[in-house]
Amino acid sequence: MSKTLKANKVRKALVKKGFKEKKSRHLKFTLHINGKKQRIWTVMSHSRKDIPIWLQKRMMKQLKFEAEEDFYNFVECPMSYEDYVSYLEKRGYL
């Protein structure tokens, strides 16, 4: 992982792809499909502007991505909500 990602861009991508944001000590995002909460989630800090590489790797695993390219496509938006749900279904996460 070598791209710098802005926290706000990642947050917007998560919300656009069906994640609900819960504010507490950190920002927790949980995937919802047809109104049902799923077991796929990730956490971000309130204060960060850029997401460090180590946190990108952790988020990639939490969001069930096997390849960095897929994670970046998720954030950069070529991957739609429907594409992400299909990706998870094909890999047996849903």
UniProtKB/TrEMBL annotation:
<keyword id="KW-0378">Hydrolase</keyword>
<dbReference type="Pfam" id="PF07927">
    <property type="entry name" value="HicA_toxin"/>
</dbReference>
<dbReference type="GO" id="GO:0004519">
    <property type="term" value="F:endonuclease activity"/>
</dbReference>
<dbReference type="GO" id="GO:0003729">
    <property type="term" value="F:mRNA binding"/>
</dbReference>
<keyword id="KW-0694">RNA-binding</keyword>
<keyword id="KW-1277">Toxin-antitoxin system</keyword>
<keyword id="KW-0255">Endonuclease</keyword>
<dbReference type="InterPro" id="IPR038570">
    <property type="entry name" value="HicA_sf"/>
</dbReference>
<keyword id="KW-0540">Nuclease</keyword>
<protein>
    <submittedName>
        <fullName>YcfA family protein</fullName>
    </submittedName>
</protein>
<dbReference type="GO" id="GO:0016787">
    <property type="term" value="F:hydrolase activity"/>
</dbReference>
<keyword id="KW-0346">Stress response</keyword>
<dbReference type="InterPro" id="IPR012933">
    <property type="entry name" value="HicA_mRNA_interferase"/>
</dbReference>
